[in-house]
Amino acid sequence: MTQRPTRFLNFTNEEDINLINLVKQYRSLYDVYEKEHKDLMVRNQLWHDVARIMERDVSDCKKRWRSMKDTYYRQKRTKTRTNWVLMNRLQFLDAVGKSYDW
Length: 102
Prior knowledge:
By secondary structure, the protein is mostly helical. The protein has one domain. 48% of the residues lie in helices and 0% in strands. The chain contains three helices and no strands. The chain is globular.
């Protein structure tokens, strides 16, 4: 029997914070209007750098980042007060490409 992939990645809060801080340093990873964002080779290299520092697989880092980013935008859209501990740390995303009518 084949094992199903785990749905949730086991990142600690500290690892989540480290990942956010690393991605924040590389604007090309999250800002679609950044010139280098369109260069897949550059983005792949940046993700490899992030994964090496995190001591994780690139795919795990990307999945976790996407999950946190999507959760952030979902929380913003609901306009309800949230207790999510990472909410404030992701506010830098407000200043980039995706503009929603909150």
